Amino acid sequence: MAITASMVAELRAKTDAPMMECKKALTEADGNMEKAEEILRVKLGNKASKAASRVTAEGVIAAAVEGTNGALIEVNCETDFVSKNEIFLSFVNACAKLVVGHNPADVAALSALPLSMEDFGPTVEDVRKGLIGKIGENMSIRRFKRYSGGGQLAAYLHGVRIGVMVEFDGDAVAAKDVAMHVAAMKPVALSGADVPAELIAKERSVAEQKAAESGKPADIVAKMVEGSVQKYLKEVSLLDQVFVKAADGKQTVGQYLKSANTTAKGFTLYVVGEGIEKKVDDFAAEVAAQVAAAKGA
Fold first, then answer.
1. Residues facing residue 60 across a β-bridge
2. Residue, of 209 and 127, whose pLDDT is higher
3. CA 113 to CA 96: how far, in whole Å?
4. Which residues contact 243 (CB under 8 A, 6 or more apart)?
5. Cα–Cα dist 166/251, whole Å
6. Model confidence at 212: pLDDT above 90
7. pLDDT attached to residue 142
8. DSSP assignment, residue 276?
9. What is the pTM of this model?
10. End-to-end Cα, the chain, rounded Å
11. What is the DSSP string of 194-226?
12. Which one is predicted more confidently, 264 or 52?
């Protein structure tokens, strides 16, 4: 029996299984929808659809550089255990290379790019869904940053949880050192002028409240506030931070780069799960809820 695209789509809608897996199951079942669904349940279980609602706050940062093009990507999963899974790591690295090579506009565009692995495909999204079924955990591509401005690129990964990419002109060793500094000190911008206005406003508000409590004259309070804001800008700006490897404990990153005839043009810092609310499981409450549900049944 000929397997049509509409049959594949129908089975996919029912099972949430990857497209190619649906096609294989329908072929094996000679077009019998119920039998094909049974084949998929045996092979993948209900894992993919059940896992899709679970929080993915763990994961991996990966980097890929090809000449002056590069990418940093974060792909999340549910547990630290899966973030060490070789298949999952291969998927993340494959996605990073696809970003470099194809310049997708966003995660949706990346998900539609061609990829085949572990018998899943033909797109990134199909592989993602297939791996959810195979590994039994939800996983999601969260974000990526692509560089293609023609500058040199230095990437640094601290394990799989912190990733940095620095765009620079000059010495590669100095740039790598600065990438390591970014991972350690986590600046929010290249220079004080690049710090987001909302962060400065927040810091100014805190400084004003503290200064107001001092009971000093308004002109002194204004100077105290401005001093606090300037101190904050130096603390969070890469070029103004004291370099972690500074022998004298005073040399800034900007001074270090100048001594190495190197210019930092920009950087990206990704920390796994940053800003994602982690669900804390209360085992006792979960058991109590199950008991209550059983009694009500």
1. 75
2. 127
3. 12
4. 177, 181, 251, 252, 253, 255, 256
5. 20
6. no
7. 94
8. P
9. 0.73
10. 44
11. GS-HHHHHHHHHHHHHHHHTTT--HHHHHHHHH
12. 264
